[in-house]
Batch of 2 targets.
Target 1
Amino acid sequence: MKWSRIAVFASGQGSNFAALAEAERAGQLGGGRIELLVSDRPEAPVAKRAEEAGIPALLLRPKDFASRELYEAEIVAELQRRDIGLIVLAGYMRLITPVLLTPYAGRIVNIHPSLLPAFAGKDAIGQALDYGVKLTGVTVHFVDGGMDTGPVIAQRSVAVEPGDTVESLAERIHQVEYELYPEVVRALAEGKVELEGRKTLIRE
Ligand code: GRF
């Protein structure tokens, strides 16, 4: 199984999905190829973006399955059919169960709009603003069974400006995400990310 064959999981707007697809088109994902979009919300804008980019999509409603495990088993079957090596979560709003985690251990990554471990979970940008931090940012991390708890691969900071709203800060955070995620996905696809315990290293 090759890490270069990528599935992106997303539930919403899919602007990170679009940034990754654009990076691939521009030759910036190295050997990485986005082979599949997986979404738990068939009506989400990201599904349309996949169609426009000519990327196949697996659109499944979890409530059409008897359990979360059966929903994920269907996804795993499709990932294996397509020989997917790397799962990239980009605004996928569900916790992953062992059905998906076990076969893809160490090969699932997520992007989160804060400097973890600060402000894990939902509405990270609102949480940071409410707390009053002066610096927040973006984290790309491996996914484990917890909520935003896996080993950190890369982080980039974004300053909070006086007068920032959730919208204005989100806009600057998104711009950083669109640069950072393709860089890290490229390194992963090329097998350049090493993991030892909680420590990661991106080799040149
Ligand atoms: C991003 O801010 C990402 O950090 C978080 O969910 C958001 C997804 O946005 N995990 P989009 O769907 O890529 O536009």
Target 2
Amino acid sequence: MPFVLSLDEGTTSARAALYNEKGERVGMHSVPFECLYPHPGWVEQDATAIWRAQMDAASAVLLQQQISPSDIVACGITNQRETTVVWDRKTGQPIAPAIVWQCRRTADFCGELARSSSAGMIQDKTGLVIDAYFSGSKIRWILDHVPDAHQKARDGEILFGNIDTWLIWKLTGGAVHVTDYSNASRTMLMDLATGEWDDELLRIFGIPRAILPAIVPSSGRVGMITADLLGAEIPISGIAGDQQAALAGQACFRPGLSKNTYGTGCFALTHAGARQPRSANRLLGTRAASLDATPQFAVEGSVFIAGAVVQWLRDSLGLISTAAESEAIAASVPDTGGVHVVPAFVGLGAPYWDSGARGLISGLTRSSGKAEIVRAALESIAFQSGELIEAMEADSGETITELRVDGGAAVNNFLMQFQADILGKPVVRPADVETTALGAAYLAGIAENVWSGAAEVESFWRVERRFEPRMPASVRRARMDAWKAAVSRAR
Ligand code: ADP
């Protein structure tokens, strides 16, 4: 019986999952690792600890399921995106702590870049908004701050990778230095249209080409996991950044298919097909996971505070004792009575990109109570996501017909029903919500002929629950307008 192994390396834990020929998950194991905050706004991780956690998770899931490593015919890798590792080619040791995607240490440099004459060119070429989030400025920071790093980079003695690249290099005993289009499109160093590292961008960031990995399609064999690691040689055949892997795991392989992940924040992606998207609404253009060398694009928008507003209700306000309780409390009142919670705790993401906005609760009256505030907080997650989907439709001129959902807060039925209502579109929750790991497995399994292609894995996708919109269009429009008025106050 052939199995596909998926290595799902997230921001707080490394997970390993096993899938059978029918695309069913038969086992999963997670190993946490540490995040370090050495200065305000800085976020670091130990790349070697990530590697060990990932290996421990893989060994554990094989042992738990009593599956022989020789029965694993493909391995897919998905990863927290943008996080930056630079290591010594000879020793395999990182030359500095990994700089995590959330880290703001390069914000000043990016601010200057955003005000420079190159800003328009950078955004056009990469599809990204200039920000410390992406890898380019993080690589530059490491080269600037580690002695001799610039010289070593030019001499090819050190290598850069996002976590996919780092894990693959380690898994292949240092033989393979690659990344895929979806991860490369988050570095701010790749020309989104051509899928190649761009000399002009490399010059602006001061990064020598010699340290960069080769860019390959997301589905296709890149090398073998050495036999000493898991007990047999295993082909590495799928690579994608976590959000693009989730898009694949939701079987969104065609233009117009959309998914939204409800975690700490929300990440909405719409498949844009083979045509490069150009956003007039400050969404990001990015590469979707590709099954071959034909470029596949996606439009992406994110909400910074989504499930995190539920944590805030619990931990800072003490209005609820568990996240799950928010559902019943919100449903205990027919509406919020005009109350809005705008959780702009760290500013607002797309389509506003307003780092100066701050949170507020508006529309309070003497009859506003705990239930109204809890309900308004959940509604804020749906309103913010609704604005992303609205912007995506405005950009593409096409109608999104349904929204596929996953992530920790997607279990909240009140939230999902309200999301369907405020979108005026069905919201669909699949049976397997571990879509990130699943997407990486699909990419690897298709490459190794476990599955014949996108059509076959689409046939595995099962709906657990479908939420149909019930709100009249006039009410929906009025509610959205009232939300936008509250947002304008927060700005
Ligand atoms: P991440 O991957 O970002 O850590 P998860 O996908 O694990 O996030 O989701 C966790 C988030 O979902 C938390 O912010 C939590 O507050 C929220 N959450 C979990 N369960 C519920 C629920 N039943 N209703 C609303 N929010 C929830």
